[in-house]
Amino acid sequence: MEEYLFNILKGSVLTLEVALGSLAVSVVLGLLGATAKLSPSKPLNWLAGIYSTVIRGIPDLVLMLLIFYGGQIFLNKGLESVGYTDYVEINPFVAGVLTIGFIYGAYMTETFRGAIMAIPKGQMEAGSAFGMSSLRVFFRITVPQMIRLALPSFTNNWLVLIKATALVSILGLPDMTMLAKQAAAAGRGITPLAPMLFFLFTGVIYLAITTVSLVVLKQLDKKYSMGVRRGEF
Amino acid sequence: MQFDVIFEPAILKLFWQGILVSLQLLCISVSIGGLISIPMAIMRVSSNRWISTPVWLYTYVMRGTPMLIQVYLIYYGVAQLDIVQNNWDTVALFKPFKDALFCCVLAFTLNTCAYTTEMLAGAIRDTNHGELEAAKAMGMTPWQAMRRIILPSALRRTLPAYSNEVIMMLHGTSLASTVPALMDITNAARSVYSDYYLPFEAFITAGVIYLTLTFTLVGLFKLAEHRWLAYLQPRKA
Q1: Which among A114, A171, B53, B153 would be 20 to 30 A from A100, CA to CA?
Q2: pLDDT in tens, B183-235
Q3: Helix (H) and strand (E) counts in chain A
Q4: CA B39 to centroid of chain Cα atoms
């Protein structure tokens, strides 16, 4: 029994890897999406609008199955057309990270868009009046303030993302959830309480991860809100 | 792309039944979870720690763990215990666990109830202080103020956040497909995928169905907000 519990605990490393990997992907996609949505170019607005609406309107699980199983066929058909005939298997870890990153990129797009819009426009204008290039304005003026404004919604997205990683178990990735399910099936022979015990244990680990994240993000929020006066009641 | 397979009568029927199962899961869990969340939210804002802490713990645990784990815990954990399985024909309490649909609904209800409780509790806390003072000045008891003033306004103000929660739950019902016995929209797509090996066609169809349902829900909530939240709409020029 202890072995199974230890195994699940080791699976939490993979869960965290998937979560952090997809967080990185989603932040990049979110920044791109937000700038595209706020750019003056109409086609870019449309593209980002379709991305953030469609992705947020479909369950994560369905998107994952679509991208994972569909992507597999798509890749092999594409390789076949260029004359490569060996069957290529997509690495489920990479597929999981890219899929979750792609999905949460849509949520991050909205988060970052709202944060950028909340920064007074005059500051960006002042930046370009000082002769900064638009890229420099973005990194010197927009991003530092955006972090503070985006943090509450970012925290929310991260907590949802962490829990969404449980879905990669359905794609066959040995994360915590999958190990718990396997342990539950194996442990049932030893004691009928085993499935319950293993799933509860997994739940506790997830809870620990979310608790730590909340504490850390709260500290970050404090750091980035330095010098901001909040309304007092 | 071979979308003609999707439009075969047998497959269309499969998806139609999937829609019914998904909507059934959604309606039951959201309405029961919503009803239970009202007393829970009142307990959550109570100044008595012995009342508010258990509710806080419940929402914290439910919101901190993945719903997939909650479904597994109930379906593979509780429903397959020997005491439950051996007695579910005789003990009324265990009988519902025989049904996979019940196990999913139970997990979904507990989950959505936690999120709704927190939203509603937030809305109750945000009630304008002047309204409470006015109620007190009119001689209302705390319960009267809760029933007449706080709840009607808090329920309305929760509406925008609640629409998000209902849509999240619609998407959450796709987790029912991890329980083999339930043929919801996602499982219908999975069975089409495995029977015909057509992942794009199967999952895009499921995606389009979910997207349509999502937009329908968004539209319905817009109507509801128009009806009940008109007084908070930004003034039109």
Answers
A1: A114
A2: 999 999 999 998 988 888 899 999 999 999 999 999 999 999 888 888 877 77
A3: 10, 0
A4: 17
Residue range B21-182, CATH number: 1.10.3720.10
Q: Is the pLDDT of residue A231 over 60?
A: no
Cα distance between residue A184 and residue A192, in whole Å = 9
The amino acid present at B39, given as its one-letter code, is P
CA–CA separation, B19 and B15 (whole Å): 6
Could you state, in order of their start, the residue ranges of all structural domains in chain A? Answer: 15-173
Contacts of A67 (CB under 8 A, 6+ apart): A95, A98, A99, A102
- Probe site for chain A from B173, B203, B204, B208 (most A CB atoms < 10 A): B203
Cβ neighbours, 10 Å, residue B188? 25
Tell me the domain boundaries of chain B.
21-182
**Residue A169 contacts B, CB cutoff 8 Å:** yes
Q: How far is A70 from chain B (nearest CA, A)?
A: 5
Distance, CA of B218 to CA of B215 (rounded, Å): 5
Contacts of A164 in chain B (CB under 8 A): 66
pLDDT at A192: 79
Tens of pLDDT along B46-56?
999 999 999 99
B61 contacts chain A (CB < 8 A): yes
Domain A15-173 class, CATH top level: mainly alpha
Which of B69, B171, B190 is nearest residue A202 as measured by Cβ atoms?
Answer: B69
Beta strands in chain B (DSSP E): none
CA angle A113, A115, A121 (to 5 degrees): 95
| DSSP conformation class of A165 | G
Interface membership of B95 toward A (CB under 8 Å): no
